[in-house]
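JOB MANIFEST
job_type = single_chain_structure
chain_count = 1
residues = 276
[input]
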Amino acid sequence: MEAKMGSITGLVLVLLLLLGSKGIKLDREYQRGVIFRLGRLKGVMGPGMYWIVPFVDQKVQLDVRTKTVSIEPQETVTADSVTIKVNAVLYYRILNGDKAVIRVENYQMAVYQVAFTTLRNVVGQNMLDDVLQNRDKINLKVQEIVDEITEPWGIEIERVEIKDVEIPLGMQRAMAKEAEALREKRARLIKAAAEQEASIKLSEASKTILQNPLALELRRMQMLTEIGAENNTTTVVMIPSDLITLARHWSTPADRPSSKLENSPTESRPNDSDQD
């Protein structure tokens, strides 16, 4: 009889050990366990090893690492009535595991749908130029809206990034023409400014040469050096500026005496009758 009682006791102990071992749980550093006892929330446990009551407690395991949601390309109309396709990527992580399990049925699908609709709405409120040039502004706006919606679920939106914006082919051609026109306008303005500056410099140089005629001779010698820098058959005959100046000096005053003689009044000479 004692042997039979001993065997029963041993069997009970074995069953208790099996039940106890069944309640041992182990979660990694990036995992958490949401524990429900008889259907009511008991708390969040982990990481590491812990024990729950078998057949009484139920565990829902969560991954608290940052997750990535890829938002598929979707057509949307911008504020200036241009139809484009936009896709993006969203990063989020779970802060409160109990809220993520209790307050939303499927938090992954919920986050995706919220990001999908918010991205379309935000892009539709902006002009096409803003979508192309101010992506950071749109990303921040989408992140703020989605984070505000998912905060009661215990989920934090870490970042939202627009990956690609597909523009219709006709609009691409129009934008290319506009960009080409702007570049041409900029080139003409730069050229005009350069010509204006060059004319000012030439005017200043001419005044300097006028004050010092030897500067013109130096410029002529420099031109000869530039012409003879390469092998060519150009023949240049230089006339000294002194000869030109001397010729101008002799040619100009030569006409002045004659004009003076013509314009001067005739001297009155006494008549013979007056002498008499």
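[summary]
Residues 169-211 form the longest helix (43 residues).
The chain has a mean pLDDT of 82.
exit_status = 0
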